[in-house]
Design brief:
This protein has 155 residues and is α+β, with helices and mostly antiparallel strands. It contains five helices and four strands. Strand 2 and strand 3 form a beta hairpin. 14% of the residues are buried.
Amino acid sequence: MPDRRIDSIDRSILDELQHDGRMTNQELSEKVGLSPSPCLRRLRALEADGVIFRYVALVDPITVGLPVTAFIRVRLDQQDDRHLALFEAAVAEFPEVMECYLMTGDADYQLRILVDSLGAFEDFLRQKLTRIEGVGQVTTSFALRPVVYKTALPL
């Protein structure tokens, strides 16, 4: 990504798009106080520079049959580059894994997964996660309900 300074107008564009990524350029330009042409130029520059790197639809997991959210902390037996890369490549292939973070502290990784049932979670754990070479310890917490869930960055 090029070295780019994000000014207040860029922040306004980003803030508006984080709340409604489907608005037209005309609507966006009105909200941020620009005419359509300069607004579109700025938007295209934000996309070209990788500040905006994709557009998505947010889907309610419960309505599509994925009501179980689990947070899994994983400790590897060894934290060398080979084991880290092996683990990261493996979990990137699992559709249940929504997020995976390399962590500091008592766990090497934290994962957020979505599944349709506790049985599906057990299958994920036994057939996928614990079969990755180097996985030494797994600790899981289940979410009862979301309290705060944001997708928009605090600009």
